[in-house]
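Private note to self, pasted from the team thread so I don't lose it. Backbone tokens:
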């Protein structure tokens, strides 16, 4: 049986390695719905996308990173490198805490062997590796969902915490928008009732079943299906949550892989049950699972869509050379001909703040 100290230490080290080996971009929201907004909140300049002009986004998540930025600014340590990496490290530590909580949650319900293999499945999931250290709202949703398993099914805790979260986020939004704003309603009205999310693309109703979910769960899929057969009735609520989420999101025209990321930890419980049941084949299946996840994890983390981040570092160097080579206060101009908000921007200051 793993001790609290050993599993916590291993989780932190593993996720920190995970963090620094993910050097690619996934979606614009990991910058423009979090860190760029935090930068604007602290340094009082920057750019907010159109969603923030119409009250479609909440300030609670950016406020978390804004607090970090404010502390760095207060102690005069708001260098570019810290503005870029410190929020990701904090998100990484939260992911490590979620991994630990997942282990002890399963241990409280099953034999330690099941908890160990569930933990293994969680760590070797390629999509978790790809997403869990990114500053996306979906990442925080997944982390908080995993942490919430610790409190389920305590009587009355579910409703109480939901009500507290809703009230807190609403008050934060009203404070920063400067007026009464219910972001949840605005988001529902814009994306669901008016169907404006289709502007960003649409998929057939079966996309999550035929492409989205199989891609997200990846090589774990056979173990998940076998685990669904093996699982006792007490895990029915987890399976119902996974199915319900996929079904509900299937009704929406705009679909993305990351939308169903919050249910992935639930799936790992069923995968752990499967691996624990495989006695003679367990080691071979575990090795195969690790290798099958390692390849997409390294490719998506180090190769796929890294150009939008590399170009910002390159532009930083060019602007630094330009400012050092000229004595006049000329402002270099850069034109981005790219899809919607593909690159981060203001958090790469101070080199870039003078040439927007």
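Design output:
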């Amino acid at each position: 049986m793993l001790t609290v100290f050993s599993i916590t230490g291993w989780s932190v080290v593993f996720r920190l390695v995970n963090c620094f080996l993910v050097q690619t971009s996934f979606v614009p929201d990991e910058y423009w719905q979090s860190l760029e907004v935090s930068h604007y909140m602290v340094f009082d300049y920057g750019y907010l996308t159109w969603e923030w002009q119409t009250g479609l986004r909440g300030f609670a998540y950016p406020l978390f990173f804004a607090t970090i930025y404010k502390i760095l600014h207060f102690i005069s340590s708001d260098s570019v490198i810290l503005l870029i990496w410190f929020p990701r490290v904090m998100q990484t530590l939260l992911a490590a805490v979620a991994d630990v909580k997942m282990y002890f949650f399963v241990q409280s319900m099953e034999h330690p062997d099941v908890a160990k293999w569930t933990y293994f499945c969680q760590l070797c999931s390629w999509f978790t590796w790809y997403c869990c250290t990114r500053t996306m709202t979906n990442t925080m949703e997944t982390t908080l969902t995993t942490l919430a398993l610790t409190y389920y099914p305590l009587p009355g805790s579910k409703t109480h915490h939901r009500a507290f979260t809703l009230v807190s986020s609403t008050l934060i939004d009203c404070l920063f928008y400067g007026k009464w704003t219910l972001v949840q309603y605005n988001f529902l009205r814009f994306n669901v009732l008016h169907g404006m999310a289709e502007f960003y693309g649409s998929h057939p109703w079966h996309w999550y079943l035929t492409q989205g979910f199989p891609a997200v769960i990846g090589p774990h899929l056979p173990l998940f299906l076998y685990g669904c057969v093996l699982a006792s009735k007490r895990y029915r609520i987890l399976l119902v949550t996974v199915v319900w989420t996929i079904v509900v999101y299937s009704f929406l025209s705009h679909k993305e892989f990351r939308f169903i990321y919050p249910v992935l930890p639930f799936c790992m419980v069923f995968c752990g049950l499967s691996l624990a049941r495989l006695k003679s084949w367990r080691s071979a299946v575990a090795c195969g699972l690790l290798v099958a996840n390692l390849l997409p994890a390294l490719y998506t983390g180090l190769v796929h869509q890294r150009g939008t981040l590399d170009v910002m570092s390159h532009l930083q160097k060019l602007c630094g050379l330009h400012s050092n080579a000229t004595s006049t206060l000329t402002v270099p101009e850069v034109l981005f001909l790219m899809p919607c908000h593909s690159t981060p921007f203001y958090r790469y200051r101070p080199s870039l703040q003078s040439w927007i």
